[in-house]
Write a structure and sequence with these properties.
Layout: H1 2-9, H2 15-24, H3 27-45, H4 73-76, H5 82-85, H6 103-139, H7 141-156, H8 159-170, H9 174-200, H10 204-211, H11 216-252, H12 264-273, H13 280-307
Helix pairs in contact: 2-13, 3-6, 3-13, 6-7, 6-9, 6-11, 6-12, 6-13, 7-9, 8-9, 9-11, 10-11, 11-12, 11-13, 12-13
Length: 312
């Protein structure tokens, strides 16, 4: 009976179980995940049901402020002219832009595009950086030196300048944004994975795999990559907001997403021209973008604390 009770008491937790418990104990990270999931859900689902298309202009409702029930009249001023009085009852929750388009659906479509570029470009950077860094770190020697000197050369190039060159050479292609941004965001990822790989390649389980005749590719795939996934996950959560900022900056310069599509960067660029007269055109996309960036950073901090074995 004593042996049975002792057997039931000896139950440990794996690293991932402990990390999940620590992550969900972080209130800021959990709240950020809920808010981010809400923003993503609304951005993806709402454009399919909203009565106003994102690219349809109402020329009788140009630059109309949001309805008074938002309680922001003190901020937007009394700009409800006779032209806009009729528009207030048409369901323009965030008002309209300078072309008479519904700003709410534009912000939601902008969120859909910005989040898509953030996640897909980060995935491109993740694949390139992890494979490149793990290969360089495990092989070592001259191959490692040659591969990392190539990374240093790319680091020496101005980051934004390199992306602008790619966009200008290949044109303002929507799909190119994913590749262009992801192709330059992998450098830091490769360095992080290389450093982790160098610290792992001398471990006993790697030497045992080599002595057993396991191929280099299988060692990297089955032993190296699973053990570097923790720092990689943390860095991914910090890369997504960085990619969104890069896309917003390119769109701000006119090199990003083109009409009729939009993104938060495009909306902010349009809103800054109307900031003094029609501030809601800048405030709403800027608020959504700021909330999203804060959420990613809080989630990254929570994952960093949860996956740190020294804090267990």
């Amino acid at each position: 009976m004593v042996a049975a009770s002792a057997h039931t008491e000896i139950q440990g937790r794996s690293l991932w179980q402990d990390a999940r418990r620590r992550l969900f104990a972080n209130k800021a990270a959990v709240a950020s995940m809920i808010v981010l999931a809400g923003v993503a859900f609304v951005s993806i689902v709402m454009p399919n049901f909203w009565p106003h298309p994102f690219d349809e202009a109402y020329f009788d409702r140009i630059s109309c402020p949001p309805p008074d029930y938002l309680g922001l009249v003190w901020l937007f001023g009394s700009q409800n002219t006779e032209v806009c009085q009729a528009a207030l009852g048409q369901g323009h929750l965030f008002g309209t832009d300078a072309n008479g388009r519904d700003l709410f659906i534009r912000v939601m479509m902008g969120g859909r595009v910005s989040l898509a570029i953030g996640f897909v470009a980060t995935f491109v950077a993740l694949v390139i950086g992890v494979l490149y860094g793990a290969t360089a770190g495990f092989i070592g020697g001259r191959v490692d030196n040659l591969m990392m000197r190539f990374v240093d050369i790319l680091y020496a190039l101005p980051f934004i300048f390199f992306v602008i060159i790619l966009v200008v050479v290949f044109g303002n292609n929507f799909l190119l944004m994913f590749v262009a941004i992801g192709a330059v965001e992998w450098l830091t990822m490769a360095r992080i994975v290389r450093g982790q790989t160098l610290s792992l390649k001398g471990k006993e389980f790697i030497e045992a795999a080599e002595a057993a005749g396991v191929s280099t590719r299988d060692i990297i795939r089955r032993h190296i990559l699973p053990n570097v996934i923790g720092p990689v996950i943390v860095y991914v959560t910090l890369t997504v907001p960085a990619v969104i900022l890069v896309e917003s900056f390119l769109s701000f310069l006119g090199l990003g997403v083109q009409e009729p599509f939009t993104s938060w960067g495009v909306l902010i660029a349009d809103g800054k021209d109307q900031m003094e007269s029609y501030p809601w055109m800048l405030i709403f996309p800027a608020v959504f973008m700021a909330i999203t960036l804060f959420c990613f950073n809080f989630i990254g901090d929570g994952l960093r604390d949860a996956l740190d074995p020294k804090d267990r």
